[in-house]
Amino acid sequence: MIKDQTLTKRPSLNILEKIEESLERLNDKIEVMIEIQKTGNSNQRSTLALPEASLDVMTLLSMPDHLRKTAMSICRCTRATAEEISQQTSRARAVESAYLNQLVIMGYLKKERRGRKAYFFIDKETQG
Amino acid sequence: MGKIIAIHSYKGGTGKTLLSVNLAATFVKAGKKVALIDLDFRAPSLFAILKSEDAQVWFNDYLNNTSEVETILMDLSSKVSGEGKFYAGLANPATEAIRDMSSKDRKWEMRALGRLLALKESLLANQKFDYIIFDTSPGLQYSSINAIVAADFVVVATTGDRSDVDGTKRMLKELYNLFEKKTGLVLNKVLDASASAKKTEIANKIKTAYHVPMLGMVPCFCEVLRAEGNLIFVQDKPDHPFTKILSEMAKKIEDNEVN
């Protein structure tokens, strides 16, 4: 009986996971769109994403407080998910996800998807 | 896990190197494993105080990613009595090296911050160091801000000099607060600090002016000046009041009393 229940639950769990994954991807895209809208039309996208931008201490100093906190945490971890950063900053995962995506758009971080997880990191190879 | 401590100041000549060497030696005497690192690449001085002029490898090489930290640290445990271990990473005093370090770009500085942060894994976690102490350049130099960002705790050395007081206040407000750093203030070269009433008065003034906890107050000792940086004071003068003050500071840091 128990075995049957597990078998029936598994497909619905998979569907839920897929929905969550899709929502996360949508969320990322919306955040990019919001950021582009804030700074002007989509033609400015190329000036927003600065692959050369370096996350050095002077840049950290000039950042707004909310982004500096996230950026400093990623400096300490080198590579992390929004969940891991939120544990360090004691802010909500969704908030950290938004800030991390902003840092990606600004060219300070790179983002890589591995299955359901999105990893954020400082690309030291391209930055020097 | 151990801690990274950065010793910093707004102005030069506040006694950062004296405090760094003697704080490190105090921890070593108490049985700790300590790495003292000279991050003052514009005016390297640890090599002279630790009498290691013949060094072949420098901390510059670690930041340039041409050497690993294990090959750079010099074992100087014989210079301090006690059960602890004393290692030093020296800044290269050659003019060419100073010029080279002054001309680094932002990307290099970003990678240097990564190398400093990596010491937490390599030295504190893997090699079980209790403390890494960074002796920094004064003011808002790249290397110093890197050290502050990488540190768990920052000791700010200051004097009663008017320009130092104003600059230190601004630095604490506009730099340390932004990085949310745990900080302790050391007031150095204090005149007439023998009476306890005077001490309390100065301590209260400091707390009101800087809004950071006081780690210690060091009177102006002629014996320290007379030594001309030729000795590790707490090692050579174990009964001197300076040695006692350094022990109290070390204990406060160890007990996490400064928040």
Please give the radius of gyration of chain A in angstroms.
17 Å
Q: What oligomerization state is this entry in? A: heterodimer
Largest sheet of chain B: 8 strands, mixed
CATH architecture of chain A: Orthogonal Bundle
Strand content of chain A: 5-15%
**Rg from Cα of chain B:** 17 Å
CATH architecture title of chain B:
3-Layer(aba) Sandwich
Report the total helices of chain B.
Answer: 12
**N-to-C SSE string of chain B, H for helix and E for strand:** EHEHHHEEHHEHEHEHEHHH
Distance between the termini of chain A: 60 Å
Order of helices and strands of chain A: HHHHEHHEE
| Main β sheet profile of chain A | 3 strands, antiparallel
Number of strands of chain B: 8
Shape of chain B: globular
Beta percentage of chain B is: 15-25%
Structural class of chain B: alpha/beta
Share of helical residues of chain B = 40-55%
CATH topology of chain A: Arc Repressor Mutant, subunit A
The largest sheet of chain B has its strands arranged as: 3-4-2-5-1-6-7-8
Total count of helical runs of at least 4 residues of chain A = 6
